[in-house]
């Protein structure tokens, strides 16, 4: 999709998208655009409403913004319009931005339009969305120049589309090797370096916690490392480390799941968010050095599966008692965090994972759980999330919770065995493997990375985290 700026639409024929701010249901002044008038009794710009009018050889599609629209609501509205009305975009299409439309909201609108081209039917024969066709141009009528805003918005949407696809693909397609290949190809395309360790290399390096989870599966585990270095790297430039959980399917291991296994292809959504963020950071050419790790493997049931009561080693050298094989995500993240801190020494570390049902029980499906002992980092992540509609909220990492991961037979255990404070004890476990890093944060996104919404009939990906991580890095 390309944007072409126009100065008038007097002779335009096709579909015109007209976002409008909310007036009032009893307003005496109708909403009007070039002779098309809409009474407030029919439509007055209320959030999540729209109105169609076919007149003067044009389909006028009025879009309600509400009184005080935010980034997420605008993105969602325009994604909805794009998805639900694609038959109307086979002809010329124009977008009219209202006066006073902020650049951030315009970014959300442009990004939403392209995101609306996504559908989960990857294995169904369907016609491509008009916006994806080569040469498609969106005419833009607005006061001001939004060319750079649109370009940025489309880059954001493309990264999200890739992330959505990775998470929604079935587990026999989106295998660890598939993710590794994706990272290699994306690195070549967007400009970051990718290194992948196979099973044998991981054995030689001592990534034992990662390998313990992977050993029950016939699929080759892949320890993916991505490095983005800006062209204008300076000594004072920040270095950010990211780690994403890449469990491409989670059976629970020998502590096999008794419910919800159908959706466990989504257990790599944290890793996918990191992959998408690396694409976007590189595509936007941000002024920061970023090193990202995605340990990718399956947690399967087989004759080599690791066992409850096993004691395994880790890359850090610490021993881990296995209480529950379904608490596997924290094991691969532990090796990812240890490898990152030891070999790259970033200034900031953020890990992201669909880690616990406990975080869902606490926050539902509204936000992710945030854990950090660094107050400044906490505020920065919260602000970045608020800015782009991917919200996170803090939970404590008090030392009192450390007892939940203390083991009598090893340095640490992977599960408290208690039905309470599950997200917190998981975060305390990860903290143990950060080597005391003073600017580390953990994001538990189990409730917001995959779920139900209006854009499909079944549970599907959200791409939560891609823009949050990118915005956080951009703001540093």
TrEMBL record:
Family affiliation: Belongs to the peptidase M17 family.
Segments forming a coiled coil: none
Taxonomic source organism: Flavobacterium magnum
Pfam families, sorted: Peptidase_M17
Protein name per Swiss-Prot or TrEMBL: Leucyl aminopeptidase
CDD domains, sorted: Peptidase_M17
Assigned keywords, A-Z: Aminopeptidase, Hydrolase, Manganese, Protease
Keyword Hydrolase belongs to the record: yes
Keyword Isomerase attached: no
């Amino acid at each position: 999709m390309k944007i072409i700026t126009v100065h008038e639409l007097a002779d335009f024929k096709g579909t015109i998208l007209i976002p409008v701010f909310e007036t009032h249901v009893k307003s005496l002044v109708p909403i009007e655009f070039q002779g098309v008038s809409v009474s407030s009794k029919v439509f007055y710009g209320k959030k999540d409403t729209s109105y169609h009018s076919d007149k003067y050889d044009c389909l006028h599609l009025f879009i309600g913004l509400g009184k005080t629209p935010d980034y997420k609501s605008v993105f969602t509205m325009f994604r909805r319009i794009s998805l639900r009305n694609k038959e109307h975009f086979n002809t010329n299409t124009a977008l009219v931005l209202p006066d006073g439309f902020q650049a951030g909201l315009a970014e959300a609108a442009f990004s939403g339009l392209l995101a609306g081209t996504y559908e989960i039917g990857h294995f169904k024969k369907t016609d491509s969305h008009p916006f994806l066709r080569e040469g498609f141009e969106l005419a833009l009528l607005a006061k001001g120049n939004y060319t750079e805003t649109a370009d940025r918005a489309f880059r954001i949407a493309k990264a999200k589309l890739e992330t959505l696809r990775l998470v929604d693909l079935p587990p026999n397609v989106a295998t660890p090797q598939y993710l590794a290949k994706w990272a290699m190809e994306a690195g070549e395309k967007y400009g970051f370096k990718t290194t992948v360790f196979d099973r044998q290399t991981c054995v030689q390096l001592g990534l034992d916690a990662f390998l313990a989870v992977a050993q029950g599966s016939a699929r080759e585990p892949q320890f993916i490392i991505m490095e983005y270095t800006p062209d204008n790297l300076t000594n004072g430039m920040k270095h950010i480390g990211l780690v994403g959980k890449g469990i491409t399917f989670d059976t629970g291991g020998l502590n096999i799941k008794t419910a919800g296994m159908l959706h466990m292809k989504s257990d790599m959504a944290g890793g996918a968010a990191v992959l998408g963020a690396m694409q976007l950071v590189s595509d936007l050419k941000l002024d920061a050095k970023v090193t990202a790790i995605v340990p990718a493997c399956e947690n399967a049931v087989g004759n080599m599966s690791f066992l409850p009561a096993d004691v395994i080693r880790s890359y850090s050298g610490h021993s881990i008692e296995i209480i529950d094989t379904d608490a596997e995500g924290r094991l691969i993240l532990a090796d990812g965090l240890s490898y990152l801190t030891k070999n790259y020494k970033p200034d900031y570390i953020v890990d992201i994972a669909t880690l616990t049902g406990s975080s869902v029980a606490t926050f539902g499906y509204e936000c992710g759980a945030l854990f950090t002992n660094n107050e400044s980092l906490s505020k920065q992540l919260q602000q970045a999330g608020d800015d782009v509609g991917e919200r996170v909220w803090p939970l404590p990492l008090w030392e009192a919770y450390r007892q939940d991961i203390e083991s009598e037979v090893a340095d640490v255990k992977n599960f408290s065995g208690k039905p309470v404070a599950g997200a917190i004890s998981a975060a305390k476990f990860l903290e143990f493997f950060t080597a005391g890093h003073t600017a580390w944060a953990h994001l538990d996104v189990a409730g917001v990375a995959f779920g139900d919404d209006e854009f499909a009939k079944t549970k599907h990906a959200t791409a939560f985290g891609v823009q949050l991580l990118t915005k956080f890095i951009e703001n540093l």
